[in-house]
Each structure stands twice: as structure tokens, then as C-alpha cells.
Amino acid sequence: FQAASGLQRRAAMSPTSAADTDSSEASSSDSEGHGGGKGPFTAACNLLCRNRELCKVVVASGLQQSAAAVADTFIISVLAGTIWGQRMAVMNSTFGIAINVIASVAGGPFGRLSDKIDRRLAAAIFGLGSFMPVWVVIVFGPTEHGLWAIMCLKVVGSVGTAANVPLALANDVTGYQDREVATGAVFAGVNMLNVILNGLPVLIFLVFKWLRTSWQRMLAYQLALCILYFIVLCSVDVGSRFDSDEGMARKNSIFREMSPKNLLARRGRTRKGTDSLVPTATLPPVERFKAIREPLRLIFGHKRLRRLCASAFLLAFSGSVIMTVSGQFHFQSLGLLPYGSVGELQLVAAIGMLPGQLLVLPGYLLTGYLSKQKGTLTLFRKLIPITAFLKLFGVLLIIVSRLWFLPLVVTAESYTGLAMVPLMRLVSAVAPPGRVGEAMSAVGVSMQIAGLVGNAFVILMHPLLKTIHMEKQLWIYYPICAGLHLCAIFPVMGEPSGTGWGMASGKVQDQVVGYASAGIVARRWRARARESTLSRESDGSRRVSFDEHEGVSPGGGDGESSTESSGESG
């Protein structure tokens, strides 16, 4: 309510004074968060120094991705290259479809679960699902049966992939005024840890050859990273998020869930004329599968989120196709299939990952910094054509088939992912209050569906290329994906009818309207809460339920979803 009172005071101002106040507060936050405007690196470092919990989240997310990458790079990809050979891309696409299906179906329920329980527990479940598959090699060994078991467990462990839980956790522990810089810092910090932690095995086993490379040593190293991940994750203090604006929205979400209507809907229905509860198992199927249905309703019913999901679909489609064929494309371009040794395959797999993750770090920091300076939506529109052009860089590997040129191609491919930084920030900005995790899951589901379609596209294209004797010409995927990547700009070119982009547009007038609408919703929420309290005191049988989409805070949706809710309902 203190946050709501501040918003109401801003709403009472004239537009000019409110805009001046907004500009002064923005400049003061910029000077505080950016270190006096010294640049993106200083801004990110200052934020991580001020927010230790965000630093822990970055470290935990980096450990999780590093542990998964170690298994994929040094164990799974080598097994796939030696056992599947020329079928590597097709088999990866086949299992990728299964992973996309599981992740799409489970993404919505997992995101809703992460909003209702401790976000650290959801992150622990997600991490366990990514660590578990490679452990079966202990039982089956590095054989074909072991490879099949690993891929099947990867399908099972993908339940939390679409939920973007680590990014939602970083959103929880960061104030809304710093989330643009925080998003870039998360991406950059995770990639830096990937470079360091994945580079150690390369230096020890492949470059200096201090130890003989073996899957047992790689697996022991991966287990050590898993243990560190759980330790750092448990040390994150998420209780402080209830002191922030997002915490107010999370509290309101908890209050709504504790209302009599929602409690009865969760546990069962009240029999007519009695207070006994019917078991949840007797609920209609539509009620029981509400958790799966809600993300789809959020995607198609929310005007801003619908456009962002469309852009995410196109970006993810082009990215998933390139990711599927890039491993085999690199091996074929350098003449390692089917006669490359295990050491050569490991070296190419490592070079195909580490240089890009290292050299993309300045890009992530600069993207987060410019997102706050120029506006998240404006930067997103400008990044899409630039990153689409960089996707064409992979075709040059056919002309310059040398190992020293591979890092340049991989770096260009890594920079195509910069568009995801402003996209994810926009998603958290337009999310309804208290439903950030669910909004992240909605976008994650659309990206998983895009991955499913992309993998199916690779499987269907392979026999077509084989009939025209071009099955080894995987470079053809790069210009196709670049064109689809460029199409992602069309959903965000205009403005949603009636509501616009709200505060995500970066315009001062939209921010003033967002703050004013948040104040109106806050007053309405307080009035209904007061009415509910008086009604319960006078008549215990009377219930007053709250609207699911009303909240107090500009956090979670940064005030934007409050604008949309009040505009559509009023």
C-alpha cells in the first residue's frame, strides 16, 4: 500500500509535473545504477555489487548451464558423432521433437508452480532434470544403449525448460528500475561462467594434456558442478523480494490464492447445501487441466504478450534449426565425419561453443545497458535485422573450411541471440502482476513449440535434400533461418489496439499513464478489500472474490498490466 500511495500521488500530478518527476527519478536511478553513466560494464558491476542475491542467482544459473554443457559437449556430442555419424542431425531433431512436446505441455504448470512455491525449489527441480540424463552412462557405459538412455532421460528432464525459472528468480530479487541492466547481466554472467568452467577441461585435457581425457573424469567434474549449484541456490535469500514492488504483487497473488473461492477450487467443490468438500479427482477434466490451459489463454488473450510470443516463436524457430544442424555442419565442413578421432571431435565441439560464449559477453552487457538508455522496445526492433544478418555468417564456413575460422562463425551465431535480452525484459514488463513466472512460461511454451516445428522441419528437409543429392549441404539452412529471423520484427512493429505497449515503449507519457492506472487499480483493490472485510464481519456466509488480474504494484508488470486491466475492464 505504500507503493500504491506513491503511485496515487503521481497520478494526482499534472501530466507535465508527472513527466518531470518521472524524468528526474529516471535520471537519478540511471546515475545510481550506471555509475554516473560510465558505461554498460560499470552499470552491471555496480548492480551486482549492490544486489548480492542477484549475484548468487547469476552464479547458480551459470553453474547449472555449465554442468549441462559439460555433459553435452564432452560426453553426449562425442557419443552422437561416433555412433550416429551422418544421422546425427536427424536423430537430434527426432529427440528434439519429444523434448519440445514435453517442455511445451509442462511449461505452463511448471511456471504456475514456480509462482506458488519457493522459486528456489522450482529451480532445483529444473536443475536436477538437466543434470540427470548423463548419469546413466555409469550404468550403460559409452555405448549405443547408453546414448539412447541419455536421450530418453533428456526428454523426461525437460519439464522445466520452458519456464525460464532462473530468469524469473533474478526478476524476483531485483527492483523493477534495474531489471533491464539485470537481464543483460544475467545473460553475460552465465556465459562468462560457461566459458570459465567449460574451458577448464579443454585446457587440462585437450590443450596442455595434463590428464588423459575420459568420460569418467568428465562425469566427476560435472557432478562437482551440480553440487555447487545446489549449495549456491540454497543460499539465495528470496525473502527480501517481498519488500520490493514485485513482492507486493506476489503478496497480492498469495492473498487471492488464499481466498475462499480459490481454496475451494483447489481442494474440491462444495456440495450443494453442505460444507463438505468433493475430492479434486471428481472435478471435470477442464478444471483439472486448467494449469495446462492457462498459459495458452495468457498467450492469446493478452494483447502485448501475444505479439511478443509471436516474435519469440520466429526467433526460437530459426535458432533451434541452426542449433540442430550446426554440430554436424561443423564436423562435415572440417572433414571429420566419419573418420575424425574422439580427440578431434571433442576439440571441434569445444571450439564450437567456448569462443562464442566468451566474445558475446560485451554484447549482453551493452544490450542491457542500451535497453535502459534507449528503451527496451526500440532496441528490440533494431536488433532483429542486425542479428538476422549475422545468421548468414555460417555459410562462409563452406568457403573457408579451417579450424581457425570456426570461432568467428560461432561468435556470429552467438550474437544472434542478443535479441532475447530485450525480449525477456519485455515479457517480464508486460506480465500481469504476480504472474511473472507464468508469463515467462507462456513465452517459453511458444519457443518450445517453435523448437518442435523446427526439428520437424529438419526431419522433413533431410529426405528432400537426399533426393536431390544435397544431404551434406547443410549450409542451406542458414539463409532460410535468417529470413525467418527477420520476420520476427513484424509482430512488434505496430502497437496493440487500445492499450499500446504501455511503459515498455519507453515513452514518458506512457509511463505516466501506467503509474496513474496503477493508482486507480490500487484504490479499487483497497475498496474491495474493505468491502470484503465488512461483509465477512456482518455475514459470515457472504464471500467477495477478487479479480485475478488486479494488483497493487507496478512490479511484476511494472505497472503496465495494471494499465491494460483497468483499460479493458473500465
List the uncertain runs.
Answer: 1-37, 241-286, 541-556, 558-570
User: What does the average pLDDT come to?
Assistant: 75
Give the amount of beta strand, in percent: under 5%
Radius of gyration: 25 Å
Shape: globular
Considering the chains and any ligands shown, give keywords for the structure.
mainly alpha; 27 helices; globular; disordered C terminus
Tell me what the structure shows.
With 570 residues, the chain is mainly alpha-helical. The chain is built from 27 helices and no strands. It has helices at residues 2-12, 15-33, 40-50, 52-83, 88-116, 119-131, 137-140, 144-156, 165-172, 179-207, 215-235, 245-257, 260-267, 285-288, 290-301, 303-333, 342-351, 354-359, 361-374, 376-391, 396-399, 406-415, 420-430, 436-467, 477-486, 508-538, 560-569. The radius of gyration is 25 Å and the shape is globular.
Please write out the topology.
Layout lengths: L1 H11 L2 H19 L6 H11 L1 H32 L4 H29 L2 H13 L5 H4 L3 H13 L8 H8 L6 H29 L7 H21 L9 H13 L2 H8 L17 H4 L1 H12 L1 H31 L8 H10 L2 H6 L1 H14 L1 H16 L4 H4 L6 H10 L4 H11 L5 H32 L9 H10 L21 H31 L21 H10 L1
Helix pairs in contact: 1-26, 2-26, 3-4, 3-10, 3-19, 4-10, 4-11, 4-17, 5-6, 5-8, 5-15, 5-16, 5-24, 6-9, 6-11, 10-17, 10-19, 10-23, 15-16, 15-24, 16-23, 16-24, 16-25, 19-20, 20-23, 20-25, 26-27
